[in-house]
Structures are given as structure tokens and as C-alpha cells.
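Go through this chain.

——
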Amino acid sequence: MNTVEYNKSVDKYADGMFRFILKNIKDEDKARDIVQDSFEKLWRNIENVNYQKVKSYLFTTAYHTMIDLIRKEKRKEDFENVDVKEYSHSEQYSDLKEVLNIALEKLSDIQRSVILLRDYEGYSYAEIAKITDLSESQVKVYIYRARKNLKSFIGSIETLV
């Protein structure tokens, strides 16, 4: 890979990576940092990355950087101050986007990531498996469980509209 291809990669994939990371961690500054770190890692490894595989490399790097950040932050959380109301749902919403975002937040990190990669970014099961270091069957199971959790949280679409 050369400098021109690197610059094309930045133009082509930075926005998609930012959206993917932002959907997962809900913090624009952290999402920007993760995207920047991913491109920095690509720059340091530019001679070893094939341009045809740069998208997979970038999303995999961003995903792993995000997971590292999430794990680091979880160690800092105080688990004894959990508000039960935060995890219950009793109100009816009319804003479907807000309901979907709340539902996505309720998913585990891995379920949220595979759902976002599949349904928001349009990756295939094989690509998601490569990005997340899971087998293709594990990816399918996580997506199935995530969709099942989303369905049980959201309920029927008629109750939302």
C-alpha cells in the first residue's frame, strides 16, 4: 500500500468507521479518537497491508480499539450504584429512532457490534466474523439473539406507531 492508497482509504472509510463506533459508544470525541487511532495504526503498518483488504483491516482495528476502551471504562464503573429503573421499560414512545437507540444500548457489547455491522453497515456474516474474531456461526447466533432481544424490548411495531 502506498500514500495515495492510504489517503483514498481515509476518504472512503473514515465516515463509516466513525458512524459504526459512535453507534456503539455514544461519545463523539471517543469515536473520533478511535478512528484516528485506527488510521494511525494503518499508517505505521502501511507496508504490510494490502489495499484490497484495507477496509477489513480498518474496521477490525477500530472494533478492537473500541472493545479495549469499553473494557477499560467498565473497570472504572461502580457496579453497586445500578438504578433498576434504568433497565426497565414501561413508557410508550412515538420516536422510533429513540426507541431503537435505547434498545441497542440494552444489548451486550458484542451483540450491539454485530447488529450494527450487519444491519447498519451492511457487512456479510463472513466479514463480521473476520472483524470480530468470531466464527461465522457465532456471528449468526449473536445476531439472532440480539434481534430477539430487540424484538422483546420494542414489542410490536403497532405499539410504537
